[in-house]
# Entry
Amino acid sequence: QVQLVESGGGLVQPGGSLRLSCAASGSILSIVAMGWYRQAPEKQRDLVASITSSASTNYADSVKGRFTVSRDNAKNTVYLQMNNLKPEDTAVYYCHVDYYERSRSTLESTSWGQGTQVTVSS
# Structure
């Protein structure tokens, strides 16, 4: 089991920017991928962006060209730079990690952060 600490959410006007951070800690052998999901009220939780250990990235069509996901491998931290924010980006954003635990090095595991609120409104 690992712990994910998220930060950077808040209230921003349309067209503004925010940067989310998520730091993973615990008994981690290696990280396969880290990313961000979001969930708006009465909607399902959907992938926003992810980045693998090989630095391959994946983005939801709705955020391509506006959001950038990156990571600091030494700190086990993933970032989400969000530019040109729109009201439809309003949601709770959840950090996600796929990893191998030290004690179970052959079994991939998953953990979620507690979520951070992003509100885009004028």
